[in-house]
Amino acid sequence: MKPLLMRQLWSVVESIQTSTLLALDDDGLVNFLADRLMTGCPGIDRSDRAELDGYLQAKVSLIRDLANGRSVA
Question: Band of the pLDDT at 70, cuts 50, 70, 90?
Fold first, then answer.
């Protein structure tokens, strides 16, 4: 995955409320984050979507762990 895309993705993850990240099921979370990134970052094209979905699917547990950490802090 392109470094710029990765930075933008994690910025989007940090900007979303913890309750939203924890409320969605895995597929819903992947789709929600990918859609937010695709609409919020005009430099990203549709060809990046499959790679983005795969990366997000692999990082769902990490995203949930980070969200849980924010809710405790």
Answer: confident
